[in-house]
Amino acid sequence: MKEILIGSGLGIIVFLVIIGVNVTPLLFIVLLAGAFYFFMHMQNPVKFDDASSAARKGSQIRFDEIGGQDSAINELKEALQFVLKPEKISRMGIRPLKGVLLVGPPGTGKTLMARAAASFTSSAFLAASGSEFIEMYAGVGARRVRQIFNDARKKAKNQQSESAIIFIDELEVLGARRGSHDSHMEYDQTLNQLLVEMDGINQNDNPRILLIGATNRADMLDPALLRPGRFDRQVQVGLPDKDGREKILQIHARNKPIKDSIILKNVARETFGFSGAHLESLTNEAAILAMRENSEYIGEKHFSEAINKVMLGEKLDRKPSNSERERVSIHESGHALISEIINPGSVASLTIIPRGGALGFMRKSPQDDQYLYTRQELETQIMISLAGAMAEETKYGDRSTGARSDFKQAWDIAKEIVESGISALGIVYSEAIPGETLYEECKSIIANLEQKTLSILQENQDILYSIADALIAAETLNRNQMVELINA
After folding, report:
1. Diameter over CA atoms, the chain
2. Which fold has domain 322-487?
3. Strand partners, 233
4. Where are the domains of the chain?
5. Collapsing DSSP states into helix, strand and coil, what is residue 102?
6. In which element (H, E) is residue 215 found?
7. Domain 49-236 shares a fold with domain 322-487
8. Is 332 a catalytic residue?
9. 397: which DSSP letter?
10. What are the φ/ψ torsions at residue 167 (nearest 5 degrees)?
11. Which residues contact 210 (CB under 8 A, 6 or more apart)?
12. Which CATH number is 242-312 given?
């Protein structure tokens, strides 16, 4: 219909021009009407996400379906009590919370926790991203803030619910510090409206409103958002520990034919630093690899390959030359040998198959999650980082550019030793250390460990070369294969 009307209008204008009618005023009116229509169209209300239809279909998220966040879930449940037990809260004289801020890295389950909170409290649920409130037109963002609060109240009444939860993801876009945007004041107006709406939340309201925000940049938020009476509580949603990772893997493996349940425990141990999103992707990739091989079950080799893929990316088509493959194999063998000698059981696998930007890779297998380190443990990490270049020097008498990222890692660790007050400089204030002093101390730490690493490799030169030869032949060595070579 729209195309017919546009075509008919153009035809009439052309006809009027042909018969000699001055169409300039008509064209001006048409353009004015078009501009008005475009502006009004840009200001149409945003359709905020409504989880109620999904909930009626039985796809609600429950807290017991979220792994690795027991502490955060318990803290959030406590904050939800004013929604569940308003009479008790009022009798105890407790001021109900208006907002809960979920803070943590991407992929840790902040959105899932917000949806589970709506399910836990039987509340109407509306979700939006902070970017949905920001527009180039003044006043649009503020109007959308008012709209989502009004929509939440209407939705709760339609569902005959006594409460509603509004979830705003990427809150730092909407709630950044006022004055940080120099281009225009639309950001500040939008934030001001959010503050006004939060101040208007009352414990006697029907329905009761709870605002849940999520961000991985809490440092960017305006202090007015974080003061008591608005976002009263911050819930840290961090990366899961080993037990949490195992629970997450079990959740995502429920509908997958895993060959042996012990595999998930091993995978959880080898995936330190993985978020819930990484682990979901890992189980999915392992299933794809098993299907590609027409395997009935997902085995350990599929998970091992999936970990490499999630960490580094897909295998590359490019093939290094034979001389490059030999150098990469000796480089990675150096990493693995030093790691196993200094810290037995620390290597999971070794490969010279190019992935992402790496021509080879040694994947570590930590026994336990670790958050604090002694100087000796940090020096061990530096030696492992330097071992690749030292292995090249042992065999070829020189080094290659492949050690560039290893050297950067070693320097960063040396800098951490100094700034942690466990170097020869003693206790220091990092910002007060002269640049030359920091440079010389880091250089001294690395130089000493460089000689120590080179000495160990030269003493175990035969083992180094045998691992490298096996790696060239097989391209990938698992832990058992490497240990056999070391103990041979």
Report:
1. 100
2. Methane Monooxygenase Hydroxylase; Chain G, domain 1 (1.20.58)
3. 100
4. 7-42, 49-236, 242-312, 322-487
5. strand
6. strand 208-215
7. no
8. yes
9. S
10. -115, 125
11. 80, 82, 83, 97, 98, 99, 100, 117, 123, 163, 164, 165, 166
12. 1.10.8.60
Task: Sort residue 278 into left (φ over 0), alpha (ψ -120 to 50) or beta.
Answer: alpha
Helix (H) or strand (E) segment spanning residue 476? strand 476-478
pLDDT digits (tens, 9 = 90+) for 205-231: 788 889 999 999 888 898 988 888 888
Tokens for 451? 């000689």
How far apart (Å, rounded) are the C-alpha atoms in residues 122 and 124? 7
Residue 125 has a CB neighbour count (10 Å cut-off) of 28
CA distance 234 to 218: 10
Given the residues 332, 416, 441, 450, the one annotated as active site: 332
Residue 392 CA: distances (Å) to CA of 186, 343, 387, 399, 437: 58, 21, 9, 6, 30
Residue 94 reports pLDDT greater than 50: yes
Pick the CATH number of 49-236 from 3.40.50.1580, 3.40.50.2300, 3.40.50.300, 2.30.170.40: 3.40.50.300
Tokens 């065999």 -> residue: 395
Tokens of 283: 């189980």
Kindly report, residue by residue over 340-389, the tens digit of the pLDDT: 999 888 888 888 888 877 788 888 877 677 788 999 999 999 999 999 99
Burial per residue of 285-312, b for 16 or more beta-carbon CB atoms within 10 angstroms, e otherwise:
bbbebbeeeeeeebbbbbbbbbbbbbbb
